[in-house]
Design brief:
Layout (H helix, E strand, L loop, with lengths): L1 E7 L1 H4 L9 H12 L3 E7 L5 H11 L6 E5 L2 H6 L3 H18 L4 E5 L11 H16 L2 E3 L22 H18 L1
Helix pairs in contact: 2-7, 3-5, 5-6
Pfam family, one: Lipase_GDSL_2
InterPro entries: Ester_Hydrolysis_Enzymes, SGNH_hydro, SGNH_hydro_sf
Protein name: Arylesterase
């Protein structure tokens, strides 16, 4: 049995909907329906930033991971952490995975923040994920929350975290990229 490790924040963890309704669990259902020999491991932690992930990755590096889905950065954006710092942290996580698991396929889940942030920050933040995917030749989901962010009926009352219907859409975005890697 092969393993897909989802390494992320509250989106992966299923904040407000529970892990069984979060997109990694929905991906596991799709894998089972497709008859593929993969098990999903959900390593999502609510509130995680890329800096936290950079230190937490070492806890997971000893585990089998045939596919590594990197879903971090949203909390960096919400906190206004400089895009360059977010990019460096994500690169360090990618480097650690590549060093310890050179055969592992890596999927990067891109994130965007609203253009309401002042100056060039939103644009810089958006582009950092594309640049990392290209530089590292990673499978790439351009915007994990596409069609979900800012859509009231797809989010919890906090207007930040997706509800179960929102997670179904995120699972579709991930599946489009993952399906070819299985």
């Amino acid at each position: 049995m092969k393993t897909i490790l989802f390494f992320g924040n509250s989106l992966s963890a299923g904040y407000g909907v529970g892990q069984s309704n979060a997109f990694p669990a929905l991906i596991q259902q799709k894998i089972k329906a497709a008859g593929k020999p993969y098990t999903v491991v959900n390593a999502g932690v609510s509130g995680e930033t890329t800096a936290g992930g950079k230190y937490r990755i070492h806890k997971w590096i000893g585990r089998q991971m045939d596919i590594f889905v990197l879903e971090l950065g949203a909390n960096d954006g919400l906190r206004g952490i400089p895009a360059r710092e977010t990019s460096q942290n994500l690169q360090e996580i990618i480097d650690v995975v590549k060093k310890h698991h050179p055969e592992t396929k890596i999927v990067l889940a891109g994130m965007e923040i609203p253009d309401i942030f002042p100056g060039r920050y939103a644009a810089e933040f958006r582009v950092l994920f594309r640049e990392l995917a290209l530089k590292n030749n990673l499978a790439f989901v351009p915007f994990l929350l596409e069609g979900v962010a800012g859509v009231p009926h797809l989010n919890l009352p906090d207007h930040v975290h997706p509800n179960t219907e929102g997670h179904k859409i995120m699972a579709q975005h991930i599946w489009k990229v993952l399906e070819d890697l299985l």
